[in-house]
Amino acid sequence: MKFYDVKRMQGFLLAILLLVMMGMLTGCPAIQGSHPQTQMLAIYDQYNAQFHDYMSAVGYEKKDGKWIQTSEPVLSEKRKEILRKKKKVLDEADILIGTYEDLIDKNKPIPADLTTKIFEVLNKYTYD
């Protein structure tokens, strides 16, 4: 894959991420009042876009379903710190998403504040 193709793909993923984020910021009533599985899909979409962005930034690419290191990026200390923060956000979101999935699997009600908390944590990825 050529460098400009990677940049174009990163731009495309960023555009998708921004569209999802705009929907979350406006309250996206189609998602908030929907079925838990539908909400889970929206959560996965946002998480996966951010995870792919993070992995790309640290030099990995997904090939045949596996993450393969394709480069060793030279990062400034400031950029490394930003990526460390983003990794913490993804880890925190992963725990909350796991809780959400467990509740769905056990057919238990999903607390409204859990969904809100997940999106708040995922929004930190973009804005922190």
Which features characterize this protein?
128 residues, mainly alpha, Four Helix Bundle (Hemerythrin (Met), subunit A), two-stranded antiparallel ribbon, 5 helices, 6% strand, elongated
Write a structural description.
- There is one protein chain.
- With 128 residues, the chain is mostly helical.
- The chain contains five helices and two strands, in the order αααββαα.
- Strands 1-2 form a two-stranded antiparallel sheet.
- The longest helix has 29 residues, at 77-105.
- The relative contact order is 0.13.
- Classify the fold: give the CATH topology: Four Helix Bundle (Hemerythrin (Met), subunit A)
Total number of strands = 2
Q: Provide the gyration radius in Å.
A: 16 Å
CATH class descriptor:
Mainly Alpha
Task: Please give the CATH architecture.
Answer: Up-down Bundle
Provide the domain count. Answer: 1
